[in-house]
Design a protein that fits this description.
The chain has 115 residues and is an all-beta fold. It is 0% helix and 56% strand. The strands form two sheets. Strands 2, 4, 5, 6, 9, 10 and 11 form a seven-stranded mixed β-sheet that branches. The radius of gyration is 13 Å and the shape is globular. The model has no long low-confidence stretch (mean pLDDT 97).
Length: 115
């Protein structure tokens, strides 16, 4: 059974930082592409960062230079370091694991950035 469990969300002031974690189980972590997505109220879910098993990393333009994704194969954990947070970063953040047609999401963790 695949489980992706996010943690680290919370309330932070604009300009602050948060580090999200996602503990993965039930997947062969080292061959999956791991990613973070977010969904703001009234908006569609969007991918903000991804890291392939081969080490390729991609960021949405909206977070480039502020967010950093990393993955630890020893602990099956993927992280999202978020710096210089803005109110528009407020959203539920979801962990994602992808492999071919397989696509799994966690339940999400809420990040609220106050102005």
């Amino acid at each position: 059974q695949v489980q992706l469990v996010e943690s680290g969300g919370g309330l932070v002031q604009a300009g602050g930082s948060l580090r999200l974690s996602c503990a993965a189980s039930g997947v062969r972590f080292n061959i999956y592409t791991m990613a973070w997505g977010r969904q703001a109220p009234g908006k569609q879910r969007e991918l903000v960062a991804s890291a392939t098993s081969g080490g390729s990393i991609h960021y949405a333009d909206s977070v480039k230079g502020r967010f950093t994704i990393s993955r630890d194969g020893a602990t099956n954990t993927v992280y999202l370091q978020m710096n210089s947070l803005k109110p528009e970063d407020t959203a539920v953040y979801y962990c994602n694991a992808q492999l071919a047609q397989l696509n799994y999401w966690g339940k999400g963790t809420l990040v609220t950035v106050s102005s």
